[in-house]
Amino acid sequence: MEHALLPWALDGVDLGDAVLELGPGPGVTTRLLAARAPALTAVEIDGTLAERLRGKGFDVVRGDATRLPFADGTFSAVVCFTMLHHLPDPAAQDRLFAEARRVLRPGGVFAGSDSRVSLRFRLYHVADTMTPVDPDALPGRLATAGFSDVRTSVNPRAFRFRATRAA
Question: Domain containing 24: what range?
Answer without folding.
Answer: 5-165
